[in-house]
Design goal:
Strand content: under 5%
Distance between the termini: 30 Å
Number of helices: 11
Number of domains: 1
Low-confidence stretches: none
Order of helices and strands: HHHHHHHHHEHEH
Mean pLDDT: 83
Number of strands: 2
Strand order of the largest sheet: 1-2
Structural class: mainly alpha
Amino acid sequence: MKSFLALFQKEWVVVRGNVFVLLVVGPLLVLGVPYIIDKNVETSMGLNELIIMFLFFAISLGVMATPTQYITSIRMDVNRKEVWLHSPQSIYCLLGAKALFSICMFIIFTFVVFCSGFIMVSAQLEWPIFKAFIASIAMTISLTGLQLLILAYMHVFYIFYLQLKCYIGKLAVVITVPFAIFVGYILTKIEDSAWFRAIVQHGYISLEPIENYLQPSNHDVFFYVGSIYLVQLVFYALCITVLFIVSSKWLEKVVSQS
């Protein structure tokens, strides 16, 4: 446990500058840019609409920045083979610390940005501050699940790229990127298929009480939470776990070969 915490702390020391930049840029996009546009640019959009637009732009920035940071961190260590080959910690511990740090960074960033945006438009939504916090928590949890899938997906294909690079050099990226897009497309089709839903959509848990609680009295705005299925959650959790274990061992072999 102490070794894992030490690795986590090391990750913080290496990338804390990036974390601070994200935590400044995110709220600034939500709180500052809409006001500048509203005061200086003629637009058909009101201030609250601009805040919501830049809120989701900032969240998209976080969604892209987190896996990018994770892959960059792995690449830095891959370039120093002794980190992997002579470390007393297992490959799972080394990568797990990086993954956990990236997810923690995403959770904090997402919660701060949602809080900033929801509090600013709480008057329009007729929300007290407490509801803005609850909405921020709900959206952060939802996006964190999605982010875990993205992180696992990019983790696998980055290792696939490293393996190809051993054989064909820099041309590996030409194959990896289209292949990753193609596989993502196929997986999306499978996820949307009727047979897949029939298998995983069991153990229904309605989130309608939360949705009704957060629903603004102004019916021009609709706050959607959705629902969850326990079997589907377990399935995705198992997929992420298996992908992480298998691909981590794969990465260890790739680094040893290179």
